[in-house]
Amino acid sequence: MTVDLSVDLCGVRLRTPVLAASGCFGFGREMAGWVDLAALGGIVTKSVSLEPRRGRPTPRMAETPSGMLNAIGLQNPGVEAFCAGDLKFLAGAGATVVASLVGRTPGEFGRLAERLDGEPGVALVEVNLSCPNVEHRGEVFATDPAAAAEVVQAVKRATSTPVLAKLTADVTDLVAVARAVVDAGADGLTLINTLLGMAVDTGRRRPRLAAVTGGLSGPAIRPVAVRCVWQVAQALPGVPIVGTGGVVTGEDAAEFLLVGATAVAVGTGSFINPRAVVEVADGLERYLADQGAGSPAELPALFKAER
Amino acid sequence: MSPVRELCEVLERRRVGEYQALTLAAPRVAEGARPGQFVHLLAGEDRSFPLRRPFSIWRVERPGAGPGAVEVVFDVVGAGTRALARLRPHDVVDALGPLGRPFDPPEAPAGCLLIGGGYGAAPLFFLAAELRARGCRVDLVTGAATAARLLDPTEAGRLGSSLTVTTDDGSAGRRGLVTDPLPELLAGTGAERVYACGPMPMLAAVSRVAAVAGVACQVAVEEQMACGTGICFSCVLPVGPGGGSGGLEPSPPENRETRMARSCLEGPVFDGAAIAWAELGYPELEELVR
Ligand SMILES: Cc1cc2nc3c(=O)[nH]c(=O)nc-3n(C[C@H](O)[C@H](O)[C@H](O)COP(=O)(O)OP(=O)(O)OC[C@H]3O[C@@H](n4cnc5c(N)ncnc54)[C@H](O)[C@@H]3O)c2cc1C
Ligand SMILES: Cc1cc2nc3c(=O)[nH]c(=O)nc-3n(C[C@H](O)[C@H](O)[C@H](O)COP(=O)(O)O)c2cc1C
Ligand code: FES
Asked: Which domain holds residue B71?
């Protein structure tokens, strides 16, 4: 059986359902020597803000069991430099670009979306409502359904590009947040961002990250991410979801697709294997063939919810 | 040359003083490697999802007579280096490389002073060979806490016209810091270039001495790295405007004095004068030169 890996994500045709996750593929151009950027399902750029951000002090990362903590703090050159440099490059390379936006207020998100509206190469916009590495928890809009909805509304008003809202699992009622952003107009959801964590250097009796706390990523968080996708897919059928968290192999990607994700994004996996996004897609293709599925969209129907 | 991923057979692992050395069959990495570049190694199935660990290239055997090999030398400090220290011949190491910006050799033959702290001398062995092949005079200074932490002093003695050794405890060479003899050596050898690798405080001091003497200086830094390929932004350090151009970073806006540069991409080699030492807690070079 031949497998067609392409999928429809919020009206955009992706070559494969495997994207590079935000903040884990730089701005894309760093990887041009490692993979054919045009052959990927898509590249979610590192989150960009209106003004340049320097990020947090170092050490910014620490290895933890089956994953890592990071506190990069959204370092980016600002939206103008992004458009003039990286975005132009990605568009020229034929990549499918998902521009990730981050702001401190709904107004900032709206202005970012407006600036990017109609920029060549931007296929989708991802609204980062959930980065844990910010100075104030109030900036983690996705912990509050009303605040998250307000940001999504501001973005939707400013752009005609389909909008993904990226949420955090660090909440008691994820479905409530998901429902609020979908009602506010989000075309799809990205689940999940890193989980807020902390690690201690016992020898030196201090935090291992300069920022004290950071975001946990990698296979350690995959079960949490799969659970989130499952819960939201059950509650909001038909809403496209990009599953993110610990995807390293084709089978990992299949876990997400089986429980209802339309696509997946590979994050930390690219730090170990620069070709992870390509190899996960290849592995998924083999998995689909083994399961007798002709396309990724057939997987949810093959999933048996009862053990 | 753009970096590659290579599954490398371990050819040898041996002790070198207090360090461990690992020789890997790595034809494609060895082919294009330049002094100052590093390999990002993955070994050990004992931890699930281990991140890679970066190491300077110590020696290279270009493909030709043999298949091509690279050698690294390392201090065992944690889980990653422990896993590498357990490797035996015929085991396999997953390597990315050669990564990062190498040292720039002088355009015309010139006197060069190379300064290494502890295992930080490793990339200078590779550099010394290249500089001499280009007709440069090479003088070396190596320092460490104790004699056993000096990197292969016998071989170091053969690398250049002179070798000056310092140890903190006086167990070999002069007692004191590796930076102590620098002003004297710069004056005595008439060196026009300084190259250094070692701990950050040492690199700050070397950059300062070189700046005061008006000699161009390049240093190789060690920041913690996750990806090694420029995509995670873990490994940053502040550089001044115009410093360490890797060509990938958009030029900083006019109102910003320094920016955070990724040391895996724009480094690990930086011009000593480009690093914003004050932001790292060291005195600013310009204040000292003035
Ligand atoms: C470009 C580059 C070249 C390097 N070259 C060499 C080399 O030639 N030989 C060598 O012995 N080491 C080198 N290092 C340092 C080496 O990568 C670390 O010692 C190693 O990653 C530690 O791994 P671990 O799991 O054993 O220890 P971990 O458990 O990760 O750490 C143990 C201790 O080492 C410190 N450490 C971790 N990473 C680094 C780092 N990147 N730099 C300094 N300290 C660190 C930690 O803070 C901790 O105190 C280099 C680092 C870089 C960035
Ligand atoms: C170093 C690092 C930087 C990240 N930066 C961003 C970011 O700028 N914006 C964002 O939305 N998510 C960011 N993330 C989160 C990832 O996109 C992803 O949601 C998360 O890491 C879980 O996926 P993974 O386990 O595959 O890494 C970052 C993650 C890491 C590890
Ligand atoms: S180590 Fe990831 S950007 Fe340098």
From this structure: 4-99
